[in-house]
Amino acid sequence: MMRFKKTCRTLGSSILCAAAGVLLAAGAYAEPKISFTSTRDINGEIYSMDTDGSDETNLTNHVDSDSYSAWSPDGTQLAFVSERDGNPEIYKMNADGSGPTRLTDSGSNDLSPAWSPDGTLIAFSTYRSCVSGHSGAGPLQ
After folding, report:
1. How many CB atoms lie within 10 A of CB 80?
2. Which residue from 72, 76, 94, 119 has the highest number of Cβ atoms inside 10 Å of its Cβ?
């Protein structure tokens, strides 16, 4: 189950405010986790942390920008947007940051991933043209 919460945190002289997905206890973790994007390393990176602010971990640590993370319903994976292949594309990775896999490959921007309740589909927004007969949704590879 997911709940969304607006969080604000002071990082040096900056204040980071974002709507962060909070994974409730029934996932891969015994305690709820928050994922968020920070630019403290110049480019955007995805971090996770416990809801009390402890156990903060950089999950992506890549030279290109990573953002818009979304927990899978079972808490074992995150979908996210990365520019590591030249433009914003949808990726997924394990909850510990391992195994990043590109899911889209388009010259257009693919943004804002959201998991289906059963975890088999990821919806996202895109700037590409629609192809007749294709909804833009499909099973995860």
Report:
1. 23
2. 72
Among 111, 118, 117, 119, CA closest to 136: 111
Contact present, 31 and 41 (Cβ < 8 Å):
no
What's the predicted TM-score (pTM) here?
A: 0.73
Q: Parse the chain into domains and list their residue ranges.
A: 2-126
* Topology annotation, domain 2-126: Neuraminidase (2.120.10)
For 97-139, how does the pLDDT look when each residue is reduced to its tens digit (9 = 90+)? 999 999 999 888 999 999 999 999 999 999 877 555 555 555 4
Alpha carbons 19 and 93: distance in angstroms, whole number: 20
Cβ atoms of residues 60 and 41 within 8 Å: no
Q: Alpha-carbon distance 22 to 73, whole Å?
A: 11
CA dihedral 58, 25, 3, 83 (to 10 degrees): 30
Task: Look at residues 59, 126, 55, 50 and name the one whose alpha carbon lies nearest to residue 92.
Answer: 59
Cα 4 from Cα 110, distance rounded (Å): 22
